[in-house]
Design goal:
This protein has about 375 residues and is α+β, with helices and mostly antiparallel strands. It has 9 helices and 19 strands. It has 2 domains: about 250 residues, Zn peptidases (Aminopeptidase), CATH 3.40.630.10; about 110 residues, 2-Layer Sandwich (Alpha-Beta Plaits). About 50% of the residues are buried.
Length: about 375
């Protein structure tokens, strides 16, 4: 039922549209046009203004003919950089890549393209279907900041499929971690490095001691990273200030918080020993979830995959997505592979076959009788 040519044309058109985080306007206008052509009413919220972007989250409700609960389908409108001047290059055999100078944008425009193609098929063939809700969010790649300004109370669906994970079509994530970022500010005292070094308190050395004491990488059931260090202003000044930015992830909320307390304690000790002050702040980026495999949203996915001869595999991911946010609003779901590979790199690719299969899957999920 999927029209492969139409799907590929739409994907290429979207992929060749500039869409860095907070600059999704052009993509959004194209989606509005598509929805209008399908007679689907839509609304854009004011998230753009709140996050310093030029576009809000796009929401739509597709009335159904069947007496089945609505399902929510979601994908994000932005791409990681470099997301401007993208070209979709079609290779013999069906592989689709960028021209090598940007990402392709399959993360997550493949998700948007397959949803729209499935909706187009429903309209074209006048197939009776359940009600469908759509959320196309902005600034997902900026730690899901767009969806955090979305009004979840308007959603009627309790089941969601977020089409936003790397890997073969037919797999989905049912578990994702808590992600918490931290920021540490070591405040020492500046002094001339040669005239009066004894008057200084070396903030960089204090921070360095802390970094040495903190284990990074996979640590128990968490992952820990310190990713940014900043400090000092000149080679002849004892550095007054040093800041560290990092993150902790874990499938266990409790473990993540315990690990953060340990990290803070080690930093505090290093600061105290040096006579420096420490300010430690955290930012909870998203909460962990684990969807029970007996839930209808999982069964529907696995049955749809079985019908299409797809594996229907469930995985855990160490990445966060809008699915974390939906889950904590009482809307349970899976992060489903829409046909993206090597995402967040210039080697990113999809294939014509994968996109077609993923669009078939969207249609199957919509038409499922449960
Ligand atoms: Zn994504």
């Amino acid at each position: 039922m999927i029209n492969k040519e139409r799907l590929l044309t739409l994907f290429a058109d979207l992929a060749e549209t500039d869409n860095p985080s907070r600059q999704e306007r052009e993509i959004c206008e194209k989606l509005k046009e598509k929805l209008k052509a399908l007679d689907i009413p839509y609304e854009e919220d004011d998230a753009g203004a709140k996050i310093g972007g030029n576009c809000g989250n796009l929401y739509a409700y597709v009335e159904g003919d069947l007496d089945l609960p609505p399902i929510l389908l979601s994908a994000h409108m932005d791409n990681v950089d470099p997301a401007c001047g993208k070209k979709a290059v079609f290779h013999p055999g069906g592989r689709i890549t960028s021209d090598g100078s940007t990402v392709l944008g399959a993360d997550d425009l493949s998700g948007i393209a397959i949803i729209l193609e499935a909706l187009t098929v429903l309209k074209e063939l006048q197939i009776p279907h359940r009600p469908i809700e759509l959320v196309f969010d902005v600034a997902e790649e900026a730690y899901c900041i767009g969806i955090q300004h979305f009004d979840f109370s308007r959603l009627r669906a309790r089941d969601v499929y977020v089409f936003d994970i790397d890997g073969p079509v037919g797999y989905a994530a049912s578990q994702a971690p808590t992600m918490i970022s931290f920021q540490a500010e070591f405040q020492g005292r500046g002094a001339h490095a040669a005239f009066a070094p004894e008057d200084g308190i070396h903030a960089i050395k204090a921070a360095a001691k802390a970094i040495t004491d903190i284990e990074c990488g996979r640590v128990g059931d968490t992952t820990v990273n310190i990713g940014i260090i900043n400090g000092g202003i000149a080679g002849n000044i004892v550095p007054e200030h040093c800041s560290l930015t990092g993150e902790v992830r874990s499938f266990s909320e409790e473990s993540a918080h315990r690990k953060l307390q340990e990290i803070e304690a080690k930093m505090r000790k290093a600061a105290e020993e040096a006579g420096a002050e420490l300010t430690f702040t955290i930012d909870i980026l998203c909460g962990a979830y684990q969807v029970d495999h007996t839930e209808p949203v999982v069964r529907r996915f696995q049955n749809a995959c079985a019908k299409l001869g797809l594996p229907g595999g469930l995985v855990s991911t160490y990445g966060g997505s809008v699915n974390n946010h939906f889950y904590h609003q009482g809307i349970h779901g899976l992060v489903v592979a829409p046909g993206m590979n090597c995402c967040h790199s210039k080697e990113e690719y999809t294939t014509a076959e994968e996109l077609e299969r993923a669009a078939d899957l969207v249609l199957e999920l919509i038409l499922a009788k449960e």
